[in-house]
Write a structure and sequence with these properties.
Layout (H helix, E strand, L loop, with lengths): L2 H15 L11 H11 L6 H25 L10 H23 L15 H11 L4 E2 L6 H12 L3 E4 L2 E4 L4 H10 L2 H9 L22 E5 L2 E5 L4 H6 L2 H27 L2
Helix pairs in contact: 1-3, 2-4, 3-4, 5-6, 5-7
């Protein structure tokens, strides 16, 4: 199944068997709307939400048309509770679709990543660095729109409805971006200096809870000591240790019996 097939399947499952149908004997469009708002939390990106909502609208329209064929009040559908349910459900669902379209931001494909940022872009980045959220909309300058969208895609900025902000542990990236004043330079820094290991660095492996071996690091190579200590090995398996103990006891008893037998039969 493709991603679109999965999303449409979930929309059909919600429409046919969703919990919103069991809230009251005759479910209302408001019940569907409330359940839908919770359901959409499972779909993080706007494209997935639009696929889900459009499939839901298709299902609502299909049932509305089927109902009109047998509706006793089809000449005056506003007097029919079922017709009102379909009309309101479609209205609420369409509203969510429209809100996504209004807030959907398209990245500028002609963004010049090589050039230095405009002053207004630097001011916007500086404001984010100082903890000020930035409201992004269709009227935002193209360069700011592109930079903030890219920073959000990298996980440096987080989005809350219509505004973007930076978490305190991501501020170093904005500081570097202000220093470089160019997306190309910033991208090169992300892909090289920040992620490379320094020469001579040693990756420390915690062997405190590992069994058996001790690792000693020394210049020119590592040495692994694996001492053969019967008590340590046996301590790993209490059952085996007890078994060997009983074998020794039984062996001693058998040896004693044999010795007594020989003594009395000489």
């Amino acid at each position: 199944m493709t991603k679109e097939d999965v999303i449409k399947s979930e929309a059909r499952e919600f429409y046919e068997y969703g919990n919103w149908k069991s809230i009251q004997p005759i479910p209302s469009a408001q019940d569907l709307k409330n359940g839908l708002e919770k359901e959409l939390r499972n779909h993080l990106d706007d494209d997935s939400k639009k696929i889900y909502l459009n499939e839901l609208i298709r299902l609502i329209d299909k049932d509305a048309k089927e109902h009109l064929k047998t509706c006793k009040k089809k000449d005056n559908p506003n007097e029919c509770h079922t017709n009102r349910f379909y009309a309101k459900s479609r209205y609420y669902t369409s509203q969510i679709v429209e809100s996504i379209k209004e807030n959907y931001v398209i990245v500028d494909k002609h963004f010049d990543a090589d050039s230095y940022f405009y002053e207004e872009t630097l001011y916007a980045i500086e404001g984010l660095l100082n903890g000020e959220p930035y409201l992004l909309n269709k009227q935002s300058p193209k360069e700011i729109l592109e930079v903030i969208t890219r920073l959000s895609n990298l996980g440096i900025l987080s989005k809350n409805k219509y505004s973007y902000s930076v978490h305190h542990d991501k501020r170093k990236f904005l500081t570097k971006l202000l220093e470089l004043k160019s997306w190309k330079s910033f991208n090169e820094w992300l892909n090289t200096a920040e992620n490379e290991e320094k020469p001579g660095s040693v990756t420390n492996i915690n062997l405190q809870n590992s069994s058996g071996a001790q690792v000693n690091h020394a210049e020119g190579g590592g040495k692994v000591n694996n001492p053969k200590n019967e008590n340590r090995e046996l301590s790993k398996d209490p059952w085996l240790k007890n078994l060997l103990w009983w074998i020794k006891i039984i062996g001693a008893i058998i040896a004693s019996i044999i010795g007594l037998y020989k003594l009395f039969n000489v």
